[in-house]
## 1
Amino acid sequence: MSPSVNSIAGSNSTSLEDLDVDDLTAHVIKVSSNIDNERIKFIFSRLIRHSHDFIRETAIQRHEWEAAWEFLTEAGTYPRTVPCHSMTDRSQVGQACHPERQEFILLSDVLGISALVDQINSRQLPGCTESSVLGPFHNESHEFNHGDSISSVGAGQSMLIRGTVRNRKGEPISGALLDIWETNGNGKYDMQDPETGGPDCRGKFYTDCEGRFYINGVRPVDYPVPFDGPVGIVLDLLNRQAYRPAHVHFLISHPSYERLNTALYDRTSPNIFRDPVFGTKSSLVKDIEWVEGKEEAKMYNTKTFIRVEDGSETEGFWLLEHDFILAETQGTPNLKSQL
Amino acid sequence: MSPSVNSIAGSNSTSLEDLDVDDLTAHVIKVSSNIDNERIKFIFSRLIRHSHDFIRETAIQRHEWEAAWEFLTEAGTYPRTVPCHSMTDRSQVGQACHPERQEFILLSDVLGISALVDQINSRQLPGCTESSVLGPFHNESHEFNHGDSISSVGAGQSMLIRGTVRNRKGEPISGALLDIWETNGNGKYDMQDPETGGPDCRGKFYTDCEGRFYINGVRPVDYPVPFDGPVGIVLDLLNRQAYRPAHVHFLISHPSYERLNTALYDRTSPNIFRDPVFGTKSSLVKDIEWVEGKEEAKMYNTKTFIRVEDGSETEGFWLLEHDFILAETQGTPNLKSQL
């Protein structure tokens, strides 16, 4: 070495902060806080704080961190589906549109993050119907009249969905829009079933002047969240099962009331106590009743079928009934974010 | 409503736990803990705890959460590059292979998470050279002999990289493998430069029997982390600049010593105190010296060039010199993870 050109020794004139494991976090937050938007500043400071605390507490090993981002990358690109933005696109790809599968939402779902977000965003006023997770299967559908069937022939066992929409004083809400979707009798949403040519087991309609609704569908069955991708590996890793308890989704809206995003769950489901996405709440667990005979079926235009149980046959249909209670619009400020 | 089929009232027989904002987390951890691998169990419990606490403390709004996963999805799929796994693939795509751009690693980098992981994974023993972040530009390269140039003609201003590799007793380490990579004089790594036909400004070589190394390259310059994608939006949002201070990467390995992943930074860089990925440490900040004349250049096979400063011309070359100190292998257990 030539000492004349080695100027390293004694070069302590830099004012660079040496950041160790304990003060790096404060530094990152500091340099990320030079913005005017207080909300974004706050969110990122907490995001950095928690992601760092997580890594600190677990002393994440490099190979573990590499596995994590490899996973996230795979998640973000899985699967590489054909984007579909319009009906024109749908006809071009020659089948019903498959929305891009959102593996990230699913990850959020199975980690309970979606449920947490739902809870924080839906603090119900006393007496109102509780909310539930939206899930990835909401989609556009047609408008129907009361007594119509949202399900194609042979989609499953006939079920009448009936009830009212009211406010907290018990007054009926007329003209509330109900957007309903459910699986068919095979546990598949229309978008998952290549046999389906368009919307099936989903539809929109309005409550009548007495706040009532009734529509015909099929009895939903338990189905697994998609587990053939990265999130399925997580579920396997955590020794968790993938089947959601059978349910029907309801998205209910009216200009004078808070939008309600909820679902009703079948009490007899073997998975009612182990929903992989943490959406079930006891107030939303329902008994789906068997209604015998043809009289009520005629009244609601409901198809009957022969049910065999304990060796005896009866003709009738299933009934899912619920009275939804909406909260008055709170006049919450418009929280448009720059994000 | 027909009271005969409405069995909702009084149906309190379910034992379903109602999980509110405060006890959902414990529940999710509980149902995710039914596994034998204690490490995975611990990591996921902390991941869930922190992600939930983050959402709780910030009361994340639904539109904010939607923006988050839309961002992550975009990050995961940005850009949709041609996968490239072998030299055969490279020739098929007709150009030097561009490794898939890892937007997630970059996100981790700018949030300081990568630096935190590096710190936790590289707790240096006293007296050893400190580590730095790996970054996304490490790649395969050729092997060189001492005095060779790793840089193509015209890649930048000639710089000799010289030093020794020693243990903590000051004894030279013979046969240590140095893997070096740096930008060219335009601030680009070879993989970012379409003009480059193969590896450039990167190479591998071994220390001699006295632990010495010397190789010719170019003086690196500051360059921005890729900011034309999702992470660039984050940097903009946080009012942060994207330029890393000029540096040379070193990955040094030897069977008897802990692998050292580090970098040396140019003290004169205007960004030396604001590295966007938090990789700089004062012990790694170096004075790059100007060596005048041709004598030493001949000794090390270094190209000289005419430098104009303050109106006067001198012929010489740049010198980056450092003595690296490696830690003895600790015999750490093989921490192969199931992840």
## 2
Amino acid sequence: MSDVREPQVGTSAESSARPAGEPLRVGVLGARGRMGAEVCRAVDGADDLELVAMVDEGDSLATVSGAGAEVVVDFTNPDAVMDNLHWCLERGINVVVGTSGFTGQRFDRVRGWLSDKPGVGVVIAPNFGIGAVLMMQFAARAARYFESVEIVEQHHPKKLDAPSGTATHTARLIAQARAEAGRGAVPDATKDELPGARGADIDGVRVHAVRAAGLVAHQEVLFGTAGETLTIRHDSYDRASFMPGVLLAVRSVPQRPGLTVGIDALLD
Amino acid sequence: MSDVREPQVGTSAESSARPAGEPLRVGVLGARGRMGAEVCRAVDGADDLELVAMVDEGDSLATVSGAGAEVVVDFTNPDAVMDNLHWCLERGINVVVGTSGFTGQRFDRVRGWLSDKPGVGVVIAPNFGIGAVLMMQFAARAARYFESVEIVEQHHPKKLDAPSGTATHTARLIAQARAEAGRGAVPDATKDELPGARGADIDGVRVHAVRAAGLVAHQEVLFGTAGETLTIRHDSYDRASFMPGVLLAVRSVPQRPGLTVGIDALLD
Amino acid sequence: MSDVREPQVGTSAESSARPAGEPLRVGVLGARGRMGAEVCRAVDGADDLELVAMVDEGDSLATVSGAGAEVVVDFTNPDAVMDNLHWCLERGINVVVGTSGFTGQRFDRVRGWLSDKPGVGVVIAPNFGIGAVLMMQFAARAARYFESVEIVEQHHPKKLDAPSGTATHTARLIAQARAEAGRGAVPDATKDELPGARGADIDGVRVHAVRAAGLVAHQEVLFGTAGETLTIRHDSYDRASFMPGVLLAVRSVPQRPGLTVGIDALLD
Amino acid sequence: MSDVREPQVGTSAESSARPAGEPLRVGVLGARGRMGAEVCRAVDGADDLELVAMVDEGDSLATVSGAGAEVVVDFTNPDAVMDNLHWCLERGINVVVGTSGFTGQRFDRVRGWLSDKPGVGVVIAPNFGIGAVLMMQFAARAARYFESVEIVEQHHPKKLDAPSGTATHTARLIAQARAEAGRGAVPDATKDELPGARGADIDGVRVHAVRAAGLVAHQEVLFGTAGETLTIRHDSYDRASFMPGVLLAVRSVPQRPGLTVGIDALLD
């Protein structure tokens, strides 16, 4: 952790006024949790970022403002995150949120708070994995050009749900892209099926969930048309894989006033 | 096609008496069918084999004996194959059969005919693909060492059954190998499943059937244990892929008196 | 092939004047070649297209104008294609070209001809495979977000060049995207290398060429960053795979006056 | 770790005299090293094994005999392992060795010591990964049936050598199997090669080494013949993957007097 310097009143939210070349000052809430600790390491290891505050349960949020944080990263819990967000926004501090539990109602409350703070940005993302986000973008884009598409996701056998949230979300994006392109049903002549063999049907897209020891989190989207297939595969082994996405959000949020949901919009 | 020479009485079934270095004389029944035509091309292209007879509906079987065939390959149809087999065995000609429709009863009849012909061999195989057979052998062998296993088969969307016969057979071989090794159920914590997501259950092995335009015939068997996975994958694009297995059977059958079912036993 | 009707003077180049709902009238040059014959089948099988002329060596181009073709597809040869193009453009017929041999000089000549025909479009593409084009687009897009990238292409063993033109082109697109994003060299600690093990170096991107019987044309682009990998794979088995791209060009060209090189721009 | 009970004189080496159903008593040398600690956890977690001694630098080997260990697992270092082995064999204790640095000379010395101890077994293995060993066995077995074969290994970018030792060993096994089956050179028409594109040549087998962040240790062996390919892939993420092989060796060694090199022979 970097040393704490005096807060510089008024600068935190005005990114355009930041001295060029100075590292961006970052505070982390939930710093002793698994994701939070990983974020601290990632921020600390980036030349253009400075870790100025590590806060966890029992610590005072004043540490964050006292340290002059320009961006706060929140990986706490659904019960704490709204208060944290409100506190930061009142002080004009940009926020990147990885904590889960966001609903339409919560997004609306955040938008309300932001309407009084025109220069301040918030990025809330359910998944900071750039690879996963690209996989979904590419899948949505390829969907309109291929006759067939199926998803095979593969996870460790302790996973409770099948298919994964990512697979379900991908299937919906694909179904929507097919509909927009005027594509009808995926061809399938199956007459004689052992129950379950053809997977789950999500908006007309078949999704198969493989569970095996040794696996972590993987997904394959297979597109096919006469004579060719296109496969997009994402393999995730480690929560370290979320860090490039978190850092991208940290670097982007001062230039993105208002609420941004998901890191898709940050990728271009 | 090679030219037809005079039949050499008595030599056809006595492979040990064959002049060393002379090509093995092969006749094909169903020579104008898709598989039969492919067999004719494959035999014709092999230095150690000589294509001496091509017979199809309307032709006389006498062509085969007249040409001195030592081995006959039958890719005809279920209605014709038993008569063809009987005719060949009576004349001491070895037979390789790829025609489908064989039941336990039919195997018994062939064994009965063979009991009178101690030097003659018959190989009947449902699948001549060496790759597919090796995939199944390897899967059965690996099954006892891994905690988890699942099968994903992938075929063109005109296929009527799901999963494929090969996948079903592979699952049964794996289940049997696990049982013999005293392995219990594959671990699976799934609590919340969209119907079909976890595939079909064949003797405790989950099997997923993917159908997409652009695919031909593919199968992947995934084994996993803490920290590692082993994947065996077979991709078949073309019936040419069956020819090495047919030629292996043709070359082996003179040395294998009696009935051999499947080409597994020929691989070693 | 559809029946030939009377030419309708003046309508061929004015796509906006086409009666809504009427199929687009298409002529094929090089209709008896392998690609041309495939194009004829594809056009004939599309509800919104009508195959009005099939022309090959020895046939008169007048067939095309006589049949009122609105779009001509040229899969002939480098010696014939420029004359064909000129002939079509003079008559205000849109052209889709799959014939190879185009250079900067040839493109300039086509642009010159088109400058006199403001409503007419030409699409010239080295590769009509939508899957291959998407693979390259996705690879170029992912390139900036990942620390590492390598390409493994796999082809049949009769291929003369290694790596393939597609792999070389993909590597260059990736190298350019990395440079634009300010990414330095791909990390690689290799000290002790058996010559060739690390592949060919194309603008800093390692490319590996696998050659094996049973393969057709395949390419995998692997991106990696700490904890995750993203893989984009394209498998092509058959020239049928180029047809969706050809038909897309046929349908698009009347709405795209001027010269379009590659089908990338048609995909959106 | 289990509690230490009184040594039972004379039973340690006489596995046949072990009370049925009692767990096998295991000691670990190098218990505080990364591999050793993992072995301790694995032994402790197995119902049929009892961890009776954990020894590392500075501890006395007497702990092992004092605890009545029937099998000792050595993951120490090349300088210590020979003394450890000698000490154990003198006391009739079976040994499983994962320490590296074994040469033909060292194997000879171990055989010499064992010649005086007919009932005692030693297993020395360079790699306890069952998945990797099966991959090599399957590759060697498939080699004779396919026209083509190539190896693609994939590792993290901090690896110093390319290709990996496992890939080199696999290539040699394949080359040997092809030679024994009378197979000639792998077909390859490459005329125009960018240096390195076709990989390293190990006894006629092409090997490609991919290095990318996000990867751990992976290997793919691709076999091909007209119309089909067979792929054997091993993915290793974690040293936990070696534990099933270590436990297999521990359970097997009391029934295998003499020296066993590698765990191949234990797999059946």
